[in-house]
Amino acid sequence: MSDIVKGTFDIRKPADSDGFSASQMRALLNALWQGDNSPLRPRCHYVPEDFEYLNDAACQSVWSGTGVTVTTNSTNEQEGSYCLQCAIDVTGDRQVDRTLVIDLSGFLKLKVWTRCDKVSSAIKFLLRDSAGNESYWNITTDGTVDTWKQDTLTLASPDSNNGTPATLSDIAKIGYKALEASQTYLFDEIRAEVGMTVYVGSSDVAGFFRQVWHGVDIPLNFAGGNSPTFTAPTTYPRIDLLTIDGAGTLAWTTGSEAASPTPPNCPVGVIPICYVYCKTTMMRVLDFEEKDSDADQGYVYRDIRPFFNLGGGTDEKVKADSADPAEGYLNEKTDNATLDVDTTAHKIRVKNLGIVEGKIGANAVSQGKLKTTTGAVSKQGGASFQWSLLTLPGGEYGFYPQLKGNYTSAHYGASLAYKDQSAGAGAWSTSYVTYIYLGAGYSISLYAYAQQRYITASSNTHWIFLLYNKTSKQIIAGYEAPDHPSYGNGEDEEKVPHPFADYFNRPLSDNLQIILLDNDKLDEIKAKRKRNKEILEIIGEEYEIDFESNPVYKPREIVEIDEFGDLRGEVISVIEKEVKKIVNGKTLVIQLAKTLKKRTVSQLPSYILYKSLKLKQ
Questions:
Q1: Which residues contact 252 (CB under 8 A, 6 or more apart)?
Q2: What are the extents of the domains in the chain?
Q3: Could you give the C-alpha distances from 275 to 42, 241, 266, in angstroms and in order?
């Protein structure tokens, strides 16, 4: 059996005029035996048009053009058994085309075969998208009459267009144009070749055989298409794995670069398709049988589609332990309080809020295990010393605040709070709150900052409030944190609607405006953070409020412990703790419970604007 090598199946072979040999027949049968043409076939090219029409009626139902007589030709074909023949009338400058919906964005080149009964006829190949945009590639037929010539067209570089290039991901029509008068053209196979991707064939064969199943009860329904693109390795070769999941999504598992690379392991729950040997010099992927034609390119290293899935054919259930009287699914063996089963990802997980205080040992929580975050407030200076009373993020759940300024030699001030009844200034609450009285002076370029680390229960969003002076067009104070200013400050968002305590029960001056920022620029800003430069400082230096923006406010949640049961909101968890005390020699067990509530800020007060940021000009 030493003469058995890797075979390649070609649906067009044997053709009528091939002179097909016995060795070629053996190779074709080897390819069938080896499964080369089985479902999900990985290839580095795709043939969107092979012109294998059995009769004139068949090709005329697909291809047509004004002044063009279209027939099938089984005498002069270049590939397969048939080609397309187009006889042009005396008018000339004709076009022949067909409707073909195809995504060519993952392909690098097209190879087309042409032939003409005239020497060097100048014509064009065309692609049109669904919007009517067309791209053209110039082709000159062979310099010898009635001789086949293959042209390679770079899809990203058409020679011309009708005003706007066709969108390769949205092709709706292909064809040839500028066909000369009274000439006869033959067209054969149009072949698309991939770039940094692999084309995977359909999971169905001949529209009848559906032989690929995901698991034991779900047939895979994949129409065929390109894998995601990938990048070449940087230093050493690499072997990547292409897989498909039950939804028909192709994905890469990237291997490790090495002088002698090895394939990565296959993830759980997917079907392996092939390995690709990636080179640092590659710009495209070749089929295995073409790998020696260009040593710089990567290639399909191994076809690993499984013939059989021996993962079991029974509905497997489990017992929790040896004494468990009944088998069941895993979701029946969890308490559904601490653990549950994600029925979408089909994995066991710790349930949201499932690890309650009573299940944590006294010495089990270190500093790194606390769910903490930070928030900050800021105050701009002025011609005189300027103060603002600000609500610190985190409230009672906060640690001691840290202070900084944007200059070292400057005037700054900070204190807890003050209330001057006679002057009507300041603020003092009847509830415990975490205020800071923050100031800076004698220059509008000065900013004082206070940052507080605190224990959070949510952190699923971010709140950035700004106090804006419409006259000076300056941000004079700010607040940023993952939690609303009311969090941990003894009140709800109706009593603490923003962080600027000077204006809780006092109208804003006409020249002031409170703004809540949309989070559309948040990721961009976070990427610029440094140890000594945080969100508010970056906003002040690089951004300005986009007053022409009109983002839509979406409701945001506040999650907070309601220790006394007087906060509004939906109960989402009760945190229970058992405390033991010895009184007069007897042990008393006291059950303590704290309620975790969620409330929604559905809309903002009318005096708070909701705006986006933009970079300063």
A1: 227, 228, 230, 240, 241, 242, 243
A2: 1-37, 47-194, 199-303, 317-350, 369-554+603-615, 557-601
A3: 10, 5, 11
| Distance (Å, whole) CA 545 – CA 515 | 9
The answer to whether the CB of 103 falls within 8 A of the CB of 37 is no
CA nearest 185: which of 115, 271, 102?
115
Rg of the chain on CA atoms, in Å: 36
Phi, psi of 615 (to 5 degrees): -65, 145
pLDDT score of 138: 97
Cα–Cα distances (Å) from 262 to 97, 306, 341, in that order, read: 47, 19, 35
Q: Each residue of 526-561: pLDDT tens digit?
A: 999 988 889 999 999 999 999 999 999 999 988 887
DSSP output for 402-445: EEEES-SSSEEEEES--EETTTTEE---SS---EEEEEEES-TT
Q: How far is CA 573 from CA 170, 341, 396, 477, in A?
A: 50, 18, 20, 36
Q: Write the DSSP string, 490-536.
A: TS-TTTS-SSBGGGSSSPPPTTEEEEEEPGGGHHHHHTT-BTTB-HH
Nearest to 414 by CA among 376, 450, 466: 450
Tokens 């103060």: give the residue. Answer: 387
pLDDT(285) > 80: yes
Nearest to 105 by CA among 152, 197, 169: 169
pLDDT digits (tens, 9 = 90+) for 341-386: 777 777 777 776 666 655 665 555 554 456 788 999 999 998 889 9
Instruction: Tell me whether strands 419-420 and 122-129 are parallel, antiparallel or unpaired.
Output: unpaired
Q: Given a cut of 70, is residue 401 above it in pLDDT?
A: yes
In this structure, are residues 450 and 436 in contact, taking their beta carbons and an 8 Å threshold? yes
Predicted TM-score of the model (pTM): 0.45
| pLDDT, tens digit (0-9, with 9 covering 90-100), for 287-333 | 888 899 899 999 999 988 886 554 444 456 777 777 888 877 777 87
Domain 47-194: give its CATH code.
Answer: 2.60.120.260
**What gap in Å lies between CA 509 and CA 476, rounded to an integer?**
13
Backbone torsions φ then ψ of 193, nearest 5 degrees: -115, 135
The closest alpha carbon to 95, from 72, 117, 127, belongs to 127
